[in-house]
Amino acid sequence: MPIRNGLILLLTLLVFSAVCAAQEDDPVRVDSSIVRLNVGVVDDRGHPITTLGRSSFTIYEDGAKQDISRFVAAPAPFSVVMMLDMSGSTRSFRQNIQMAATRFLDALAPDDRVAIVEFYSKVNLLNDFTSDRRIAFHSISVANGSGQTDFYKGLLFALDKLSREKNRRKAIVVLTDGVDTDAQDSDRRFLANLKDEEIASAIKPEMNETLRRVLDRSDAQAVTIYPLALPTGDPARLADPTPRQVAMYTAARRRLQLVADRSGGTLHSIRRLEDMGALYSIVAAELRTLYTIEYQPTNDKRDGRWRAIKVDVDRPELILRTRQGYFAK
Is this structure's pTM higher than 0.85? Predict the structure, then answer.
């Protein structure tokens, strides 16, 4: 009997431990009724303005004024996922990538938390969120891979990691040519039976289902995404391309623009590999100048429809950048 009781107690403890572990691994659920905006403000020369207060901003959703429920001034810390494209197309300039990425780490604020993710034919977390730059520097130095480009799977993975960062401000900075292998295969099948004269405008970039999942999740979590677009994905740089190649690469670049626009980020096109470090530094500077504003929409219907967002500031000469809206799902 004592042995039996001991076994029952042991099994109970094991089940309890498994349940606790599962609870710890569950992602933090995002309250989809709250809308969060990361807002950048600059003057007419592009200089950031970081001294505004809550009363300077007015938010409209579908033309209706909204009450600001939470306001975070520009210097507040971020949780950032740094994504590195380690697919075969980047193999010849890995050293450039590593040197440029370390400049980004140097430019972050000390209390920013950063996770490093590499993606190619699979997605790997090289380090979880940390403010210890030595860990992140090491991750960048060992990033490696080859083969295909699981870009959108990488973005979904990064968004899942960020969902666990609770109420911290969130961003993804992704270095890639944007040519996702699965999306390109789908585009190729779609174009296969079309005539050459039909190809140029046939692909609708926004209709890719995986991309739409990325955009919906970035909306729900208020994650600002900054793509750094490598020249290997530029349709204008293809050597003697066919009409189908031009169409597929153009669609890939437009999808990168969609990711930036919908999330309120900026697409930075890399013209020369030597420019990567400077662009990384620009993105880090942009993060430090963002305001975060939250509101509870007066329209509480979750009908899947598009809600247009407009942000005004009490100084009309200033220029604002934020996401343009969201689908109420």
Answer: yes
